[in-house]
């Protein structure tokens, strides 16, 4: 209880009072000091009405309940950082200090923070934020990343104490043991949203050189609670951290019936933290069973394939002659041909060897033969250079042909023709052939002619 000094208000009645008058400013300042000294910081709950934003950016409003009204002001710097939008009809919890406004002889609440109060107000704010993020495209399916099938490392953003992290660890170990990294954070209360967002960003900053292995998937988890308890997972800073994450994120906040804004932006929503662990890893025993089943199916399929093809081959083989007999006959023929070839090669080599031996025994004989043929070849070459039809005819010879231009070499052949063409050096004559014609030539001349004919014949005997 505060002791108040009422000064000279209570004095004996028999004494004459001569109070000293005070100015209005003095009275206002005394009241201000009294109010601010006794109501320095307060937390009040009420409904906003009459809210108005001045050109300066300050907000002027009133808070009311069923029995009274409290004037309030929110300065521009504070208003720009408020988590809720100031509007009439919104039930809020306001924190600040009570002060007086001498210009109107009134008192007012200077608001330092403002939060929605009651389920209805929170749901209204939740829907407003949801529509804002939908408009920005943060919840679109095109931005969602696939969850890895068998992650080596699983990051968890949650409280270090409580049943949530234990449930996740036990469930993962039971299904498929994996490395788990916990980034401990508060999951409700003042500053919880900022720390959750920083944990998500911290996991994304890890790389190959970091002492902690970068997780393949992140689970953001919290147990059940009221809407107020889970409100950190509706804050904008958390939503944008999840949206910007390069690592896939599974959200597991509250119970199955609780839906926070993080559930819309995450890559996969789990109904519970235990459900998030089940989504993160498969059951190892089930995988082993599946592999064994697939292995058995593959073996059976291969066995059937080979059996079917063996049956086909057996059927085809019955229509083919004895392959062994065919191969043996061809091998026998090959042996016969190889033997003939070897004999032919031996004979050829023997003949060549004999020829070489003879050539080695008679080198002088071969030299004389070579010289003789060379001399004859040179003589014939010289004679050919001076031989022509005109030169032969000028030497007294005649060229006898039939009417078709074919040369006649004998009298027998001439008698078979009706007429002949006799070519001399200077002209041609045509003679008629009769069957009783007998040449009247002296023996000496005939002998000479025969000699000349023999000589003529030898001219063209190359």
CATH class of the domain at 125-282: Alpha Beta
Structural class: alpha/beta
Are there runs of 5+ residues with pLDDT below 50, and where?
1-11, 438-462
Cα-atom radius of gyration:
64 Å
| Name of the CATH superfamily of the domain at 125-282 | Succinyl-CoA synthetase domains
Shape: elongated
DSSP helix count?
14
Give the mean pLDDT. 82
Q: Give me the strand/helix succession.
A: HEEEHEEHEHEHEHEHEHHHHHEHEEH
CATH topology group of the domain at 125-282: Rossmann fold
**Biggest beta-sheet profile:** 5 strands, mixed, barrel
Strand content: 15-25%
List the strand order in the largest sheet.
1-2-3-5-4
Please render the helix and strand layout as text:
Elements: H1 24-38, E1 42-53, E2 59-64, E3 69-74, H2 76-79, E4 91-101, E5 106-116, H3 119-136, E6 153-158, H4 163-175, E7 179-184, H5 192-205, E8 217-222, H6 236-244, E9 249-253, H7 261-265, E10 268-269, H8 273-280, H9 284-318, H10 323-361, H11 363-385, H12 389-394, E11 399-402, H13 411-415, E12 419-423, E13 428-432, H14 443-459
Parallel strand pairs: 3-5, 6-7, 6-8, 8-9, 9-10
Antiparallel strand pairs: 1-2, 1-4, 2-3, 4-5, 11-12, 12-13
Tell me about this structure.
- The chain is an alpha/beta fold and 462 residues long.
- Among the domains are: 24-117, Beta Barrel (OB fold (Dihydrolipoamide Acetyltransferase, E2P)); 125-282, 3-Layer(aba) Sandwich (Rossmann fold); 389-459, no CATH class.
- 46% of the residues lie in helices and 18% in strands.
- It is built from 14 helices and 13 strands.
- The protein has helices at 24-38, 76-79, 119-136, 163-175, 192-205, 236-244, 261-265, 273-280, 284-318, 323-361, 363-385, 389-394, 411-415, 443-459, and strands spanning 42-53, 59-64, 69-74, 91-101, 106-116, 153-158, 179-184, 217-222, 249-253, 268-269, 399-402, 419-423, 428-432.
- The protein is elongated, with a radius of gyration of 64 Å.
């Amino acid at each position: 209880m505060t002791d108040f000094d009422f000064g000279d208000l209570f004095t004996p009645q028999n004494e004459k009072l001569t109070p000293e008058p005070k100015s209005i400013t003095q009275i206002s300042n005394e009241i201000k000091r009294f109010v601010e000294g006794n109501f320095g910081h307060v937390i009040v709950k009420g409904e906003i009405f009459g809210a108005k934003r001045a050109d300066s950016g300050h907000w002027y409003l009133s808070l009311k309940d069923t029995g009274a009204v409290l004037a309030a002001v929110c300065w521009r710097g504070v208003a720009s950082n408020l988590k809720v939008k100031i509007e009439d009809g919104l039930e809020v919890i306001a924190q600040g200090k009570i002060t007086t406004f001498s210009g109107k002889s009134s008192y007012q609440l200077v608001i330092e923070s403002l939060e929605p109060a009651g389920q209805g107000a929170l749901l209204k704010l939740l829907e407003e934020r949801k529509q804002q993020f939908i408009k920005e495209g943060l919840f679109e399916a095109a931005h969602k990343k696939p969850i890895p099938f068998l992650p080596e490392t699983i990051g968890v953003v949650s409280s270090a104490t409580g049943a949530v992290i234990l449930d996740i660890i036990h469930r993962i170990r039971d299904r498929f043991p994996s490395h788990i990294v916990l980034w401990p954070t508060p999951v409700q209360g003042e500053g919880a949203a900022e720390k959750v967002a920083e944990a998500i960003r911290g996991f994304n900053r890890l790389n190959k050189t970091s002492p902690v292995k970068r997780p393949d998937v992140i689970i953001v988890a919290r147990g059940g609670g009221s809407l107020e308890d889970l409100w950190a997972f509706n804050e904008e800073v958390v939503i944008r951290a999840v949206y910007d994450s390069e690592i896939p994120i599974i959200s597991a906040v509250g119970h199955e019936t609780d839906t926070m804004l993080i559930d819309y932006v995450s890559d996969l929503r789990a109904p519970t933290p235990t459900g998030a662990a089940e989504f993160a890893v498969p059951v190892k025993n089930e995988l082993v069973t599946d592999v064994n089943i697939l292995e058995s199916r593959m073996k059976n399929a291969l066995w059937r394939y080979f059996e079917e093809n063996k049956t086909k081959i057996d059927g085809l083989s019955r229509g083919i002659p004895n392959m062994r007999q065919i191969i043996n006959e061809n091998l026998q023929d090959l042996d016969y041909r190889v033997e003939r070839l070897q004999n032919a090669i031996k004979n050829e080599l023997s003949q060549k060897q004999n020829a070489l031996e003879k050539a080695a025994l008679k080198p002088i004989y071969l030299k004389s033969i070579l010289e003789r043929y060379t001399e004859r070849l040179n003589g014939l070459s010289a004679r050919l250079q001076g031989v022509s039809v005109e030169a032969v005819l000028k030497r007294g010879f005649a060229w006898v042909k039939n009417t078709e231009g074919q040369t006649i070499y004998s009298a027998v052949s001439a008698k078979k023709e009706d007429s002949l063409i006799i070519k001399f050096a200077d002209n041609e004559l045509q003679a008629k052939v009769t069957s009783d014609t007998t040449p009247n030539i002296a023996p000496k001349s005939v002998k000479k002619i025969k000699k000349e004919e023999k000589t003529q014949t030898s001219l063209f005997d190359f």
